[in-house]
Amino acid sequence: MGRLSSQLASADVGHLAAAYDRAMAARRARTMLAAIALVLAILLAGIAAEVRPAVLFTHIGNFGSYFDAILKLDSGARVWTSPADWFWNLATWLRLMAETVLIAYVGTLAGGAAAFVLSFVASRNLTRSAMLRGATKRLLEFSRTVPELVFALIFVVAFGLGPVPGVLAIAVHTMGTLGKLFAEVIENIDAKPLEGVAAAGGSWLHRVRFAALPQVLSNFASYGLLRFEINVRGAAVIGFVGAGGIGQTLLEAIRKFYYSDVSALLVLMILTVMMIDYGTEKLRHRMLGESAR
């Protein structure tokens, strides 16, 4: 009897092992097919986009030589051997960098304020009208789909050169991006406070103020700070089209082959963004920590 039970147990183990092997073989086959399909998709995309690896490898040396050139002064010495010559126009560059940060700051505030208002209208759990909610979402989609550079070009034509087109371009794009993020945060809040305020006879504004806002405020602030970091970099880029800030000076240095000026401006931008990233990261963590407590 014991021998029969042992034989049955061995047969069950063998059957399970065979089933496991078949399942793993099928899984490996699916993984291999998915990998082959991914490689084919990449190759087809490369062919359609006319990507030529041979051109990349042939000219990649130019990339390295350019970086070597921007690290040299006109005398041929390395830039770090004479910081005074390297940052010869530091006062003007700092003023332009401050203008870039202010463009990002004002644009983030304006776009964030608009996103704050529209996000409550676009959220499914606060706005019952599908038409109003859909129209608001389409507006936010349009605002974040059009690149900041395109908005900057449009506003430069409308308002002329200077910081104003930059602020408007940053604000419109920020409104679309933060509006979507804010609306998603609102749609994931606890519904019980909303139901409680509604049951007590509260209006739509009461539900927003006393039920929704306390749950989302810290996340809103965190997303706003993160967007400010991104907008500082964006403000430098839109300066290429004359929308204020340090971007126009950087583009001019690149076009006129002022190599050491290019590296000096890049270093200044990198240091500025690093400081802003560090400061906003500390603020975000502090806000989220206080919210959790």
Explain how this protein is built:
83% of the residues lie in helices and 0% in strands. By secondary structure, it is an all-alpha fold. The protein has 2 domains: 2-51; 87-292, MetI-like (MetI-like fold, Orthogonal Bundle), CATH 1.10.3720. Helix 5 packs across helix 7 and helix 6 packs across helix 7 (163-187). The radius of gyration is 28 Å and the shape is extended.
Keywords, please?
single chain; MetI-like fold; 2 domains
CATH superfamily membership of the largest domain, which one?
MetI-like
Provide the gyration radius in Å. 28 Å
* Oligomeric description of these chains: single chain
Structural class: mainly alpha
> Tally the helices: what do you get?
11
Number of strand elements: 0
CATH architecture type of the largest domain: Orthogonal Bundle
- Give the total of domains: 2
Q: Encode the helix/strand succession as letters.
A: HHHHHHHHHHH
* CATH domain class name of the largest domain: Mainly Alpha
Distance between the termini: 64 Å
Task: Report the major sheet.
Answer: none
- Which percent band covers the strand fraction? under 5%
- Low-pLDDT runs of 5+ residues are none
> What fraction, in percent, of the residue positions are helical?
over 70%
- The general outline is extended
> What is the overall pLDDT average?
87
Assign the CATH topology of the largest domain.
MetI-like fold
